[in-house]
Design goal:
The chain has about 240 residues and is mostly helical. About 70% of the residues lie in helices and about 5% in strands. The longest helix is centred in the C-terminal third of the chain and has 39 residues, at about 150-190. The N and C termini lie close together (about 10 Å).
């Protein structure tokens, strides 16, 4: 069992590292490819990401939500603490399907917040728990495995890591719902044509898959930790 902590075991490499790397690689390739393609194609309605965000927020009756620039590529996000949609320069000023789609997605989070969307509230409540659990899990599993009288700590570490995995799982419906809202609003409002919507969907589906990849990797790691704690894995 000590092999995991000093060098990656074959089991860990084959069942955790390799699948996680493949999924993450596919997710990043899909996202970058979709964004590169649809951030160069002008949207036929001529609307910018900022203009789309302003229209969505006004139509939803939440004009108090601010729109602010943020540095970094694909660093766009919504901060519920100060009710602000942060858009990168390429999204803020871009007049492309990618810009409008991503801006609408972040506004989707603002709508979730305003409407008290339960999964978003659950994710917010899990943030401090997940941060603490993820930092405690590995040391607890390590001590529980190498010091047999403290084996109970290994299972405590597994439970702590499971809470961090739960955060990943709860994130999925939050992100999928925001994208669903974005696609519906952009399409029904006329901010994008049928041709434009192909690019909007492609970018949002690609972004959504990155969360699926991250969650899958976290679940695989949790299963491996369970096998270590139960003594059924990590001895190869």
């Amino acid at each position: 069992m000590l092999s995991f902590f000093f060098y990656p075991s074959m089991t860990y490499m084959l069942w955790v590292i390799l699948p996680s790397l493949v999924l993450a690689g596919v997710a990043q390739f899909w996202l970058k490819s979709a964004f590169a393609k649809y951030s160069k194609v002008p949207i036929q309605t001529g609307i910018s990401g900022r203009e789309a965000a302003e229209r969505i927020l006004m139509a939803a009756g939440i004009p108090e939500v601010r729109i602010q620039p943020v540095a970094g590529m694909l660093s766009d996000h919504y901060n519920p603490m100060n009710k602000t949609v942060f858009l990168s320069e390429e999204i803020m000023n871009g007049r492309t399907p990618a810009a409008v789609g991503i801006a609408a997605h972040e506004c989707g989070h603002a709508l979730q917040h305003a409407q008290g969307y339960a999964p978003m509230q659950a994710r917010a409540a899990l943030v401090p728990v997940a941060n603490l659990s993820s930092s405690m899990a590995m040391p607890m599993i390590f001590l529980g495995i190498i010091i047999q009288p403290l084996h109970f700590m290994a299972w405590a570490g597994v439970i702590a890591f499971a809470l961090a995995v739960l955060f990943h799982i709860v994130t999925l419906p939050v992100e999928f719902d925001a994208s669903h809202r974005a696609i519906k609003i952009v399409e029904q409002s006329g901010m994008a044509t049928a041709v434009d919507m192909k690019g909007v969907r492609s970018c949002l589906y690609a972004a959504g898959f990155t969360y699926v990849a991250a969650t899958t990797g976290a679940i695989l790691q949790l299963l491996y930790f369970i096998s270590l704690a139960s003594g059924s894995g990590g001895n190869d």
